[in-house]
Amino acid sequence: MEPIKLDYAEIKIAAKILRAINHKDVRQKMLKVIEENKSIGVTDLYVKLRLEQSVASQHLAILRLAHIVKTKRDGKNIHYSLNHDRIETIAKLVETMNEPEEN
User: Fold this and answer.
1) How far apart are CA 18 and CA 12, in angstroms?
2) Model confidence over 24-38: pLDDT tens digits?
3) What contacts 21, CB < 8 A, 6 or more positions away?
4) Which of 27, 64, 69, 81 is in Cβ range 3.0-4.6 Å of 39 for a Cys bridge?
5) What integer pLDDT is reported at residue 103 of this predicted model?
6) Coil, helix or strand for 81?
7) Which of 13-17, 60-64, 86-90 is least confident?
């Protein structure tokens, strides 16, 4: 069997994406609220979660950089929605990683 060549840059990117989702206190709650509302403005989001605006913005930036949420500008307001294609890709990756190894 040929040894697997690891692309450390790709591994680093994957780790950042998984870390973006794996934040139970804030980011997972944000994702849940965004999903429940289909699309939500940043002000409504931080009010619902009882967060300071700056804290909400920091966490949303992480989710945006990982392409887990999408944005749509409406005048001065930005609305967030889930990027279902990206989330599906991540879910498939995690599922593949959990499959038992074949000998």
Assistant:
1) 10
2) 789 999 999 999 999
3) 27, 28, 31, 66, 68, 90
4) 81
5) 56
6) strand
7) 13-17
Query: Given its phi and psi angles, is residue 77 left (phi above 0), alpha (psi -120 to 50 degrees) or beta?
Result: beta
Nearest to 14 by CA among 86, 83, 84, 71: 86
> What is the DSSP secondary-structure string of 17-63?
HHHHH--TTTHHHHHHHHHHHSSEEHHHHHHHTT--HHHHHHHHHHH
CA 81 vs CA 10, 54, 84, 96, 98: distances in Å? 26, 19, 9, 26, 28
Tokens of 1: 């069997």
As beta bridge partners, residue 79 has 41, 72
Other Cβ atoms within 10 Å of 42 Cβ, number: 16
Tokens of residue 51, six digits: 């967060």
Q: If DSSP codes are grouped into helix, strand and coil, which group holds residue 1?
A: coil
